[in-house]
Amino acid sequence: MKIIGHISLIFLLALSLLTGCEATRSLTSSISGSADENLLAQVPAEEREEVKKAEYALQVAEEKLALAEMKKELASLQKKYADYEEDAAVEYQKKAAVSVDLAKLEAIDRAGLGEKKANIEDIADLKSKELKIEANSIKIGAKRDTTGEKINDLLKQIDEQETKIINLEAAGVPEPEKVDIMKTDEKPAEKKVTESATEKEAGEQEGQEKTEGQQ
Predict the structure, then answer these.
(1) First-to-final CA distance of the chain
(2) 42 in a domain, yes or no?
(3) What is the domain extent for residue 149?
(4) Residue 70 domain-assigned (yes or no)
(5) Which helix (H) or strand (E) holds 86?
(6) Which of 70, 97, 47, 94 lies closest to 157 in space, CA to CA?
(7) Is residue 207 one of the residues assigned to a domain?
């Protein structure tokens, strides 16, 4: 009986958790739900002015976010470049130190001092070490230069993005679309002009008839 009671309790707890999750999802959906675009399209243009403003503000915000991400990437690349510069300086210092030791040993060997065999081996080891440092320096320099090119490209993109934002903010909210409808007074005006021309022709014809009668 105790086992059945425990099973029932577990079932009730699971059911309550499931119900709570469904309610939470329903509430979240109702809060974050987007407007029906089909219904929005039926709203008159003059009534969608606030929508245009909100969409414009969103566009500006998105462009500014893109700019911030570019600047963050730029900062990361600049840090990498600085690290490569430091690594290159370390390798340069190592090579300079090895060059000093090598110059000393070669001077000793040329003077005929020390054990010849040991001198030859030590000089060879230092030259080998020097070559490894040079090879490593070349790799570091290549990575540094590649990073420098990425920085230059990104700086151009940032400049273009800043100009884009300036132009976007200067342009302001787009004007609502206007439907080109013919004004109702255009037709009567045309009719009035036509009637005036007809009256003028009738008057000219009447004057001509009077002239002929007098003759």
Answers:
(1) 136
(2) no
(3) 49-171
(4) yes
(5) helix 49-110
(6) 70
(7) no
Count other C-beta atoms under 10 Å from residue 179's C-beta.
Answer: 5
Q: Is residue 99 part of a domain?
A: yes
109 touches 120 (CB < 8 A): yes
Q: For 25-81, write each residue's pLDDT tens digit.
A: 444 444 445 678 888 888 887 788 888 899 999 999 999 999 999 999 999 999 999
Give the number of other CB atoms < 10 A from CB of residue 77: 19
Query: Amino acid identity, residue 169?
Result: E
Q: How many CB atoms lie within 10 A of CB 109?
A: 17
What pTM value is reported for the model? Answer: 0.61
How many domains does the structure of the chain reveal? 1
Express each pLDDT in 124-181 by its tens digit.
Answer: 999 999 999 999 999 999 999 999 999 999 999 999 999 999 999 998 887 765 544 4
Q: Write the DSSP string, 31-62.
A: HHPPP-HHHHHTS-GGGGHHHHHHHHHHHHHH
Please state, in angstroms and rounded to a whole number, the distance separating the CA atoms of residues 133 and 92.
Answer: 8
94-110 confidence digits (pLDDT tens): 999 999 999 999 999 99
